[in-house]
Structures are given as C-alpha cells and as structure tokens.
Specification:
mainly beta; Nucleoside Triphosphate Pyrophosphohydrolase; 9-stranded mixed beta sheet; 38% strand
C-alpha cells in the first residue's frame, strides 16, 4: 500500500482596523495551480510538521515565522478514491507572529484576505467546510473524501457539510 503524502498548512493572521485578515496564496504551478490556498507543502522525511510549516512559509512568501509561534488547529485527511496518488494528510497551523512582508515566489502569489470575505469559491472545494471553522477557533480532526472529478467534496467525517461554521 502506498504511503500517504504528509503535508502542512500555515494560516498567517493579522489584525487590521477593518478586521482580521488571513494570508493566502494563489498557486502558480503544481498541484492546485490556479487556486487560492494556505501557505504550506510537503513535510520532508524526518521533519516535524510544525517545522515544515515554518519552512514552507519562508519559501513561499519570504515571511519568517518563529517555530514556537505556530499552533496546531487541525488534522485533515484528504482522500481521492479515483486517484489514490493524490491522497494526503495535512496538519494545519495558525500564527499571528511573523517578520517581513509577503513577497511572491515561483510557486505562490500571496495576498491578504478579510476573514469575513474569504475567496472560498476560488479555493479547493473542501476549504468552505473547514477553513472558517479553524479561523473561528475550532479544533478539527476530519477526513474529506473527494468525488470522482477530484475537485468536489463527496463526504466529510465528521459531517461538516451540514454544520457549517
């Protein structure tokens, strides 16, 4: 049985006079190209997920995040029954402590979004079920299964589709 790819996401937040914002990135290439995503990527062999999140943020946005500032908020397993090679787990972290200004990389074009106006229709379909929840402070442990099109969510465990944040 193939091993499931281990990934991480780091949601960077800031407070503005207009309200809280989160940094997302427009994926320029690779898996998910053309979608707005949280910063993150693969966890390397022997690397802890939190360390990978800090590394990926630096690589994708040039922001420096202290390793001790990231808080684990979710563990999500993504299943693609018709494309098992896409299967992955994601450890999701949140922080509001960072240094620098986000800069575009070869992979990501970062942009701040108001948390009340997330570009959910331009993200992976699963984001609408879990992202508002973790930004609202909910701890989440879920399995999300995609439909045969590998783009829309077929089911979630627990059932997040009925209980939106």
């Amino acid at each position: 049985m193939p091993t499931i790819t281990q990934t991480c996401l780091c949601l960077i937040r800031r407070r503005t006079l207009a309200g809280p914002e989160v940094l997302l990135g427009l994926k320029k290439s690779g898996f998910g190209a053309g979608k707005w995503v949280g910063l993150g990527g693969h966890v390397e062999d022997g690397e802890k997920a939190a360390a990978a999140a800090v590394r990926e943020v630096a690589e994708e946005s040039s922001l420096i995040v202290p390793a001790d500032s990231v808080q684990h908020v979710a563990s999500i397993e993504f299943r693609f029954p018709v494309r098992p090679s896409f299967d992955q787990t994601a450890d999701v972290f949140v922080t509001s402590i960072y240094q620098g200004e986000p800069r575009e990389s070869d992979e990501i074009a970062p942009k701040w979004f108001a948390e009340r106006a997330l570009p959910l229709a331009l993200m992976w379909d699963d984001a609408k079920y879990w992202l508002p929840r973790v930004l609202a402070g909910e701890q989440l442990d879920a399995r999300i299964t995609f439909a045969a099109d590998c783009a829309t969510v077929a089911s979630t465990e627990p059932d997040l589709m009925l209980r939106r944040a």
